[in-house]
Structure formats: structure tokens, C-alpha cells
Amino acid sequence: PILPITNLNRLLSDPDVRSFLGIEINNGILQSEINEKEVGKGLAQLANHLLHPAFYVKRIYTKDDRRDYLKKFPIESQPDLSKKSDKPWLLTDAKSALPSKKTAPSPKERKYLIPKSCVLTIDNPKVEAIYHELQQLDVTKFRNAVAVTFRVFIELSLDCYIEANGLDKNPASGKGFKPLREKVSDVTNHLINIKAADKSVCKGIRTAVSDKDDLLGIDTWHAYVHNPHYSPTPQNLLITWDNVQKFVEILWSNVN
Fold it and tell me: Tell me, what's the pLDDT at 98?
């Protein structure tokens, strides 16, 4: 049987599940300070559940569903978190964590903004729908629709992170709505402070919103909205996504 990758990612993207299993994410990599046998015990049981024919995604779809799932986790399979390892270890060393992802096609080969290899667990129905649309819209045929949807997806993703982590929703000026650049600054700083990401991961999104020629840059967005002759190229859209994908993956792994 093939382990359902989407369900596995949905579970391991939840901080409560990771804490229960004794694992954590550091710069996008799964690691643990708990004894390997204890962690393996929990992961083995999790895999058995996912592979069972009677297991359905609705059991783990929302955060509350996943909490209920953990409450019913067999006691004998629960990791003993008091048993520490001698030093932190990467789950990829044991090949027992997330399955390897296929390499995303290069921008020249790809037709869709978000490659299928980018698996995000999103509990917000609206944002999840947008995410799937960006995996299905042909950017070479619908670049204007993709451009607008991409911008909205980034903004809503930031909003979800800000709300989930209790960050200040008000702009520094105290007037109007918080601009995209300010949201990016707040979210990237928070991710770095909690050691979920480092400056290299955040560089792509920070550079994009500061670049007047980038779709995510405020000057370019105004030009796109108000200039009937301006339109981003498919290649630029794909490159912008590739530069921010890792950031988006880490963002959503710290929302759910």
C-alpha cells in the first residue's frame, strides 16, 4: 500500500501532532531530541492508521479533528517524551518522516504557478480553494487571472498566520489596513524569532515586496491595477513563486 502523502502532511504540519510525536521543524527540516525508538513507535502507528482502508481524511481534516485523533491514539504507541536522545537527530536520517517530494519542474517546463510537489495543509476553505486553483490554472493562458490570484493568496496566507499567532493586525501608522510589506515584515520576523525559519528562507518574500518591479512589490501592483498596458509574463510569475515557495510552506506549517 502507498502511504497517503496528503494525509501525512496534514498531520505533520500540525504543531500539536508534532509535539505529541516528539518532533519539531527547524528551517523546514523535521528533527527530534527524543529517543529514535520512541519517535519511531509513534510514527509507525500513525502510518498504520493512514494505510488502513477504513481511515478517512475527515478524521484529521480540522485542528479539532486532529486533537480528537490524538486523544484516541493507542497508549502503547505513544512516544515517551521523557526519553531523550544524546543529541538532536534529523528524521530524514532514519527515512521515517515525510516522503521525498518530486523535484518541481523548472519555470520553463511548468505550466502551473504552484507545482503539484508543493503540498500545503490549509484549514481555511477559501485559501485552500485558491491554492488548488493556482495548481490548476495554466499560467501561459491565464496569466492575468494567475497574477491576481497569486497576490490574493499571499496576502490571505499572511493574514491567516497573523491571526493564528496573535500578531498585531493594526498598521504601524494606526490608520487604514496593514500594507503587504508590513505584514511580510511581521510574519518573517516572527518565524525567525521562533526558529521556524532563517533569513535565507525569508529573503525571497522580503526581496519581492521591496522590489518595485516584482508583482508582490507595491509599485508593480499599482501599475498592474491601474495601467491597462501592463501585464506580468508567465516566466516572471513562476520565478516569483519559486522564490517564495519555501517561505509559504513554513508559514502554513506554523498556522495549522
Answer: 40
How many domains in the chain?
2
Q: Are the C-beta atoms of residues 206 and 199 closer than 8 Å to each other? A: no
163-200 per-position pLDDT tens digit: 999 999 888 877 778 888 899 999 999 999 998 889 99
CA atoms within 13 A on the CB side of 236: 14
Q: Which three cell numbers stand for residue 87?
A: 543529541
CA angle 136, 163, 237 (to 5 degrees): 30
SS (H, E, C) 62-121: CHHHHHHHHHCCCHHHCCCCCCEEEEEEEHHHHCCCCCCCCCCCCCCCCCECCCCCCCCC
pLDDT over 70, % of the chain: 84
Residue 86 covered by a domain: yes
- Establish if 102 belongs to a structural domain: no
Query: What are the cell numbers at 30?
Result: 523535521
